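Section 3.1: Structural characterization of target chains.
Under the original work plan, the team committed to producing a structural model for every single-chain target entering the pipeline before any wet-lab resources were allocated. The record below documents one such target. The sequence was received from the expression subgroup and is listed exactly as submitted; it comprises 211 residues.
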Amino acid sequence: MDTLQKERERGAALVTVLFLMLAVLMMSVSSTRASLAAVKSARHERDRHIAHQSAQVALFDAERDIAGAAGPASPRTAIFVAANASAFIAACAGSAEHAGLCHLVPAPGIPSWQAVDLAGAVSVEYGRFTGAAMPTGLGLLPARPPRYIVELLDYPAADPVYRITAIGFGASEATRVVLQGHYRRASATAPARRLGWREVANWPELHAATL
């Protein structure tokens, strides 16, 4: 009888140990999954930060473009000096000095910044008109240079305001951030300044809805 009792106790102890081992294993697996998810989230956030900074740089490059970085004798600068609305082409289809200059679509139409592919050839690559350069494609650098388009808003020609929409890329080209700013070029009545900016977090969805 004592032997049978001892066997039962050993069996119960074994089951208890097995349950404890299973619990420890499950906790270890859960901890590992949480750690991997945290690492993945951190990498995504880092890549998004790179894309955000890249888009900010593109906004600044566009402002220099509007301010006349191409040079006083450049046809590109002449467009901005005159605030020539006819130089801003429908669907951003212009080339040469008209590249990236998009016709302002009045409401309730779909604005150019939403309709066109900001990452495509219709936009202006960073440095095209300013001569600026940035390293890309290695390590934690952006996968490719950022790009932008410019729209002339309906303001008096003496005090022109431009809407800039820029897209930046992370170390992975799939990571993209779209920023939009308003810039007033220097005139006889006002100094040059950025009037504000925002992130268009849902730009992929807005653009997809126009296709």
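The chain has four helices and six strands.
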